[in-house]
UniProtKB/TrEMBL annotation:
<protein>
    <submittedName>
        <fullName>Anterior gradient 3</fullName>
    </submittedName>
</protein>
<dbReference type="GO" id="GO:0005783">
    <property type="term" value="C:endoplasmic reticulum"/>
</dbReference>
<dbReference type="InterPro" id="IPR051099">
    <property type="entry name" value="AGR/TXD"/>
</dbReference>
<dbReference type="GO" id="GO:0002162">
    <property type="term" value="F:dystroglycan binding"/>
</dbReference>
<keyword id="KW-0732">Signal</keyword>
<comment type="similarity">
    <text>Belongs to the AGR family.</text>
</comment>
<feature type="signal peptide">
    <location>
        <begin position="1"/>
        <end position="21"/>
    </location>
</feature>
<dbReference type="Pfam" id="PF13899">
    <property type="entry name" value="Thioredoxin_7"/>
</dbReference>
<dbReference type="InterPro" id="IPR036249">
    <property type="entry name" value="Thioredoxin-like_sf"/>
</dbReference>
Length: 166
């Protein structure tokens, strides 16, 4: 019996000649979810445009996480982000969530460069909140695993700004 999280194996037969065949085991991975490991209980939108639509419609801020699979800093942040109960709860209940492994056409999402990891907030009026920054002056929108308290405060700030400005 296979467990749901276990990779599936399939056999591929390759014919070498008319009377010989070799069996090669090939791993088939389960389908990738939109969470990409950032939080499986969070409802993730698929595109930036979809995120903007839902943010405007629901009056919730959009949180955009730019990352790359092969980036060790992204992987470290993702691990801590996914394990942090407060972040997960806010992400599930108070935000429209999007994680991207490519850049968008909106240059407002890269005000100081196209680096990863980078987390930006967009309010329901569809304004990119460049004023919600992390603690690094050379990369304003990056967070390291030990910076989760700063990220939590910035998530709360994004929520407060909606109440006070919109």
């Amino acid at each position: 019996m296979l467990l749901p999280s276990a990779p599936l194996l399939c056999l591929v037969l390759i014919t070498v000649s008319s009377n010989h065949a070799i069996a090669i085991k090939k791993e088939k991975r389960p389908p990738q979810t939109l969470s990409r490991g950032w939080g499986d209980d969070i409802t993730w939108v698929q595109t930036y445009e979809e995120g903007l639509f839902h943010a405007h419609k629901s009056n919730k801020p959009l949180m955009v996480i730019h990352h790359l699979e092969e980036c060790q800093y992204c992987q470290a942040l993702k691990k801590e982000f996914a394990q942090n109960e407060e972040i997960q709860e806010m992400a599930q209940n108070d935000f429209i969530m999007l994680n991207l492994m490519h850049e968008t056409t909106d240059k407002n999402l890269s005000p100081d460069g196209q680096y990863v990891p980078r987390i930006m907030f967009v309010d329901p009026s569809l304004t990119v909140r460049a004023d919600i920054t992390g603690k690094y002056s050379n990369r304003l929108y990056t967070y390291e695993p030990q910076d989760l308290p700063v990220l939590i405060e910035n998530m709360k700030k994004a929520l407060r700004l909606i109440q006070s400005e919109l």
